[in-house]
Specification:
Length: 248
């Protein structure tokens, strides 16, 4: 496999050469590529696991965060298109679902539409209604994130760490809040699979089906336990389901 430039946008988590399928994962607001580290043990032989690393976290912590979904997708797609052509399955969680969708459109326009697009814990493009979380005062901001289950207690108790993470988190949530799909993009033709975490306070299960509008292909959805961060539960089962929708 071609080596990604150091501190680029797309990281290999398995190191497989010449994969039959590349599973490319896009993390949630505040998330990093390592959020999918546990997936490496669950992907079958012949499948490469890759994850997107947004600026402002991990080994890109010193870089300014990007608060624009389209710009994130432009950078991720550019790096993916520098790899040898091959089958790709895109999986995005929360904010990552929107970045994955925009990336899928760019790959499609370049003649390399993914085998499948899998979207998790995200309302369909253009349907987000709560757009002010990133503007909340600090205490309210952290309380909201903690209620969703995505913030460790150790972070909440460490004022210095909170101050370091705050700009990146606000930037990600601003990207999510201000995202608008490009008019006239045209539907994908690949299958789209939606994942809903039971009890997710941000995404009503019935609204997830709106993702069917982004493709002329098949749409299917499923419900998993675990709320907004259901991706942390039964990782092998989730990976198997994702890859099953990327088969020929």
């Amino acid at each position: 496999m071609s080596r990604m430039r150091e501190r680029g946008w797309v990281r290999s988590l398995t190191g497989i050469d010449g994969p039959g399928v590349r599973l490319v994962c896009f993390p949630h607001s505040g998330g990093s590529a390592i959020a999918f580290g546990e997936w490496a043990a669950a992907v079958p032989s012949g499948t490469a696991l890759m994850a997107v690393q947004y600026p402002g976290r991990g080994d890109r912590f010193g870089e300014p965060p990007v608060d624009d979904v389209a710009a994130m997708a432009d950078s991720a797609a550019a790096e993916l298109l520098r790899l040898p052509p091959g089958d790709r399955v895109l999986f995005g969680h929360s904010l990552g679902a929107l970045v994955a969708y925009e990336t899928a459109l760019l790959l499609r326009d370049a003649g390399e539409e993914p085998r499948a697009l899998c979207v998790s814990a995200a309302l369909p493009p253009g349907e987000m209604s709560e757009r002010n979380v990133h503007l909340a005062p600090d205490d309210e901001f952290w309380a909201t994130l903690h209620a969703l289950g995505g913030i460790e207690p150790a972070v909440l108790e460490n004022k210095e760490l909170r101050e370091l993470l705050l700009p990146m988190l606000r930037s990600d949530l601003r990207a999510h809040a201000t995202y608008r799909p490009s008019p006239g993009a045209g539907p994908l033709s690949c299958p789209v699979r939606g994942y809903h975490g039971e009890g997710d306070p941000l995404v009503a299960e019935a609204r997830l089906a709106g993702w069917a509008r982004v493709t002329s292909g098949e749409y299917s959805g499923t419900v998993r336990p675990g709320g907004h961060f259901h991706v942390e539960h039964d990782v092998p089962g989730l990976v198997a389901d994702v890859l099953s929708h990327g088969r020929a």
